Please model this.
Amino acid sequence: MAYIQERPGKDGKPNFRVQVRLRGYPVQTATFERKTDAKLWAQQIESAIREGRHFKTTESKKHTLSDLVDRYLRDIIPYKPKNARTLTAQLIWWKQQLGDYVLADVTSALIGEYRDKLLKSATPKGTLRSPTTVVRYLSALSHAFTLAVKEWGWLEDSPMRKVTKPKQPRGRVRFLDEEERECLLLACKESPNPHLYPVVVLALSSGMRQAEIMNLRWSDVDLQKGRIILQHTKNGERRAVPLAGLALQLLRDFEKIRRIDTTLIFPSKSLKQPVDLRFPWEKALKASKIEDFRFHDLRHTTASYLAMNGASLAEIAEVLGHKTLSMVKRYAHLSESHTANVVARMNEKFFLGGG
Model:
């Protein structure tokens, strides 16, 4: 309930001090020159408290965007070791731009203004940021706001929900044709580095990411059942990867000569870190005369081969470890003939002879 007390002000005129007391909540106090204003404020506060709105609004006026970023960096970043450096840099940029604003004043329009600034500003290398990069900046801030709403109780809703993301270009699909694949594998096989060939074969046959392959340990591999269990993946979930054919045979051969002083399958000379294959890889590309091709494109090659051999988008997503189909839709055109065959078979079964 509200309690209003009339008191003399410094100018001799009466002031009205109002207190709102509700069981289970801290006392809310304010002072007004008019009693009607005091009553109106008390009614609004009582209603907001009963509906659970008041304290969230109060928290959003207590905390700045700097507070938001600082807490995220302190409590969340330590559990994101793989992309901690990138996330930290992105969040610090937002802190530098909007850190002095209280969260109640960080609107969708304000974030949109700085989204556009990001798009038009140059990177340290002097190039404009791509829409994809700006989307990642927005995603970093969005996750921080989501926690502020759901776990920290600093906001009722995230302003990021109404911020439009820049349109991103279609995903790159560069894969090896048959001749390129044969040339590349031959160059890798002839490389002085003994790790390059099995690594590239493993990448092509499994669709694993480069980091997933290079950080493999013997405990992750079951050569009897023909599978790899990835304990740490980009999306944070364990993933089973089937092993078959040449890749399985190469790992079996590798196990026969494995070093017993490291658990890594592809160790560097120090035995503590994976081997660095950048230079052997670049030499193999040059020797095979393959242009505009990156190691990650081996993963695209796997997906493309799967699509061309009749795999559905859901099956490709499962092999690559994607949670949704959005990332594999770029391969849809490669499986159009398979889709057409499925439709043709359905029509033949149900409508044969129909008129």
